[in-house]
């Protein structure tokens, strides 16, 4: 079969896009690593530790994957996390997120190419995604957002391809992408439950057959729901509670409370929550792309009505995420961020203000990048809109290095300093061997920063070693660390018992205190009763 010159050019376009994304991923991953910023988030260290616990733990295995965070990001780090350097440098997470960044970008490019058949439109839309500074930062970390964006971009592309070709086989990768999304972040569950009826409606309109629509929906649902079912089954078998994560997110620990830290309450009207998430999207994606996306959405709706295009269904599907966020923001998924005001937009200091969970606003980035392509859809004046886009988006790019104004909130600037650095420094200096009884729920990031192998720690996931050590601390433990000022510190809860306090004073010496005397480190006076098997 002879390939046409058009086909060859199209193939080289993909190679160019891949190299463009690859170069961006490598450059920014190395940049943030060299500046020590790729593990600023405590959640980054926790995710790296969770992946490490699967292979390096007193009781290793996939049961260590946790009970609150969805497991796919951590599972994808397991092939790299065995290496101590990749683990403690955070590069194991950067590899996972960087690959997702590249794949997600390719799907955004392919989606716009499918919609417009224009390389320039596709590339400019891709730039909205690939040159977003917050996304470039997150793809250098072990956080889950980049993988989520990848799965969202993939699901949009395959659903568009299914509608264009009416080939049911495209529903298979579309469903698998949705399943991966539901195994990455809980916001993906809203896409799952919105996509199932969408597939049925589109199939019914397209095929005018209830049986064909039913078969398409069954195929899609059977595959798309696997992530949701697997996680629910895992929680039931391991923790005896299929809704463990729901019950956790109702606690103060999930809403910002830690000891004396504030608990952020979200009790607010629905429209206020809608505005709050819109504000988060503006700060994370950028004011200019968000305004262009609003224009693109209006154009897409008008064109879809006049052309009777079914593309509107998958292109509006990500708004289920927006609805999900608005509903949960009313309850206990807090976002604390600067107000979206003219004063903050024209201030160089906006990114220095508190940004708790503001990164959630980036979840719609693939949708924004794709929907902006509709701004370029009028062929007679397309190049004029290209020119205007380059000027407007250039303003956002300029703000990265010269933040005299803030059309985008730069999340690395606002991440607070790591807590309990004095504890980490003490343990690095004075640790001489032996197991450490410590609560991972309260000190996961400090456990990461200490740099010891995870087999060193007796924590909540250490099975019998944890249970026996909590009842009788000198059974295995040489060191005990707990903080009475942390609500989630499980060791502190046990050690507040008068009988355990007496046993602690009998068998251990207090060797370090911090946090106004609430954080304590004890070292055993002789040796533990039993040695943990190597």
Report on this model:
This protein is mainly alpha-helical and 534 residues long. Helix content is 60%, strand content 5%. The protein has a five-stranded mixed beta sheet with strand order 2-1-3-5-4. β1, α23 and β2 form a beta-alpha-beta unit. The radius of gyration is 25 Å and the shape is globular. The mean pLDDT is 90.
Into which percent range does the helicity of residues fall? Answer: 55-70%
Beta-strand residue percentage: under 5%
Helical stretch tally: 26
Q: What is the spatial order of strands in the main beta sheet?
A: 2-1-3-5-4
Overall pLDDT score: 90
Total DSSP E strands: 5
Instruction: Please give the radius of gyration in angstroms.
Output: 25 Å
Structural class: mainly alpha
The low-pLDDT segments are none
Provide key terms for this protein.
single chain, mainly alpha, five-stranded mixed β-sheet
Describe the structure concisely for a colleague.
By secondary structure, the chain is mainly alpha-helical.
